């Protein structure tokens, strides 16, 4: 990996790698591609104020900082697409026989079960990014999970292998940054094609809960703002995360 991506911070414990990175960026503005990873988060977060459960010393818990000034703010979901694909690339290298899918907007599934999640926070000044921090939680060696978590899985569950967390964290970082570099190099069509081929429910009839009601709909895509596009019997709809959830 390029020298500019060599900054690595390993913490035995932290409240949240995203919060630690936010403070680090405020103080020092670390090099793009710098990662913080930890053995244990005491206050890990998912999207929309959800918590992220992880047994201490068992999983990848990391945050990476980027400065994507080359991407218009209105196209920011492209970065989420690239990061999701980087995680998928990493998982396919270890789980070649599993179907790896991206569940909009921020979950990664292996064999139909959740194995990873993404939480992106950014700072915008005017029409440009100041920075973007992507937090990634990926289940690696954990074998048992709380009953409150719907359909979790891990690399160890799927393979029967125990993995070296530091080694795998660096591999994951490289996969994510490779996809990020594709965006920088203008390879947007490749990112979009690969993302759509990985998007759970694309062109499939499924049941969703939309604004409190169950609907039958087909995902047709994701717009530039990251909103889900669906086709229903009564017409097309565009919705954000708080408006819709998967049922089947």
3D structure, described in words:
The chain has helices at residues 17-28, 77-94, 155-159, 165-184, 188-198, and strands at residues 8-11, 35-38, 60-66, 100-103, 107-110, 113-125, 128-138, 205-210, 213-222, 228-232, 235-239, 244-246. With 248 residues, it is α+β, with helices and mostly antiparallel strands. The chain folds into 2 domains: 3-198, BirA Bifunctional Protein, domain 2, CATH 3.30.930.10; 205-246, Roll (SH3 type barrels). Helix 2 (77-94) crosses helix 4 (165-184) and helix 2 (77-94) packs across helix 5 (188-198). The radius of gyration is 18 Å and the shape is globular. The mean pLDDT is 92.
Short description:
The chain is 27% helix and 31% strand. By secondary structure, the chain is an alpha+beta fold.
């Amino acid at each position: 990996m390029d020298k500019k991506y060599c900054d690595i911070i390993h913490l035995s414990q932290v409240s949240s790698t995203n919060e630690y990175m936010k403070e680090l960026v405020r103080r020092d503005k670390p090099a793009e591609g710098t990662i913080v990873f930890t053995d244990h988060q005491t206050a890990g977060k998912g999207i929309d104020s959800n918590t992220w459960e992880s047994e201490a010393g068992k999983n990848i818990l990391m945050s990476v900082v980027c400065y994507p000034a080359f991407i218009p703010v209105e196209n920011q979901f492209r970065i989420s697409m690239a990061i999701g694909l980087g995680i998928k690339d990493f998982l396919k290298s270890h789980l070649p026989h599993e179907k790896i899918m991206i569940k909009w907007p921020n979950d990664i599934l292996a064999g139909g079960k959740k194995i990873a999640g993404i939480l992106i926070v950014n700072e915008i000044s005017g029409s440009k990014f100041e920075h973007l921090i992507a937090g990634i939680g990926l289940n690696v060696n954990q074998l048992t999970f709380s009953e409150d978590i719907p359909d979790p899985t891990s690399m160890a569950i799927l393979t029967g292998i125990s993995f070296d967390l530091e080694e795998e964290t660096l591999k994951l970082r490289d996969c994510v940054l490779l996809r990020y570099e594709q965006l920088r190099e203008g390879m947007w069509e490749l990112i979009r094609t690969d993302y759509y081929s990985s998007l759970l429910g694309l062109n499939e009839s499924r049941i969703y809960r939309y604004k409190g009601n169950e609907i039958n709909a087909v995902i047709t895509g994701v717009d530039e703002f990251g909103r889900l596009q669906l086709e229903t019997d009564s017409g097309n709809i565009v919705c954000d995360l708080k408006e819709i959830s998967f049922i089947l």
